């Protein structure tokens, strides 16, 4: 786990985890870089508008990919994917509030959105009814803003081995 307070990120594994880096300094929430089973995992919770966070993390991913490593970058990106653009355009409540640059940067370094590749209908990761009444007044408001800001991105050498990926949403 990255930290104990605020919005911590973490990773669990049935096999030993090697912690490569825990970084909060210079980030709003921070990221956790670990390796388990021969795969590098970079677990993120990005802050909107802080592009330096993406530049640092995508740089780490790029270096690892160039070295032939297996890489997964996953978590809350607080940004949208251009791959979801058609769906997002059906949401008037999101007009003018969408930022594709973050996900575009990760795609430029060679990371693949495996949920989109495996399940083109998995388009909603947030918000949920749990935000009522604190952040949204009712279910109609929640539905008006539902879209995907949480992603699992993998290097090509892992994405080709992926057999399934989706977003599970239920009660």
Structural overview:
This protein has about 170 residues and is of the alpha+beta class. The chain contains six helices and six strands, in the order βββαβααβααβα. The protein has a six-stranded mixed β-sheet with strand order 1-2-3-4-6-5. It is globular and about 45 Å long. The model has no long low-confidence stretch (mean pLDDT about 95).
Primary descriptors:
Deoxyribonuclease I, Chain A, 26% helix, alpha+beta, globular, 171 residues, 6-stranded mixed beta sheet
Which fold name fills CATH's third level, the topology? Answer: Deoxyribonuclease I, Chain A
Q: Gap between N and C termini, in Å?
A: 26 Å
CATH class: Alpha Beta
Strand order of the largest sheet: 1-2-3-4-6-5
Mean residue pLDDT: 94
Radius of gyration: 16 Å
List the helices and strands and how they pair.
Blueprint: E1 18-23, E2 31-36, E3 39-45, H1 51-66, E4 70-76, H2 85-88, H3 101-108, E5 111-113, H4 114-118, H5 139-145, E6 150-155, H6 156-159
Parallel strand pairs: 3-4
Antiparallel strand pairs: 1-2, 2-3, 4-6, 5-6
Describe the structure concisely for a colleague.
This protein has 171 residues and is α+β, with helices and mostly antiparallel strands.
């Amino acid at each position: 786990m990255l930290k104990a307070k605020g919005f911590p990120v973490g990773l669990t594994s049935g096999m030993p985890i090697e912690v490569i880096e825990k970084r909060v300094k210079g980030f709003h929430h921070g990221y956790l870089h670990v390796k388990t089973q021969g795969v590098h995992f970079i677990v993120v919770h990005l802050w909107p508008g802080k592009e330096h966070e993406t530049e640092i993390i995508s740089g780490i991913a790029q270096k690892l990919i160039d070295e032939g490593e297996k890489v997964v970058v996953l978590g809350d990106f607080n940004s949208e994917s251009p791959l979801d653009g058609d769906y997002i355009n059906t949401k008037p409540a999101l007009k003018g509030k969408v930022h594709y640059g973050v996900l575009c940067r990760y795609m430029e370094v060679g990371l693949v959105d495996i949920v989109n590749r495996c399940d083109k209908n998995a388009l909603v990761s947030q918000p949920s009814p749990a935000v009522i009444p604190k952040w949204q007044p009712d279910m109609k408001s929640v539905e008006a803003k539902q879209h995907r800001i949480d992603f699992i991105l993998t290097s090509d050498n892992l994405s080709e081995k992926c057999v399934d990926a989706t977003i599970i949403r239920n009660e």
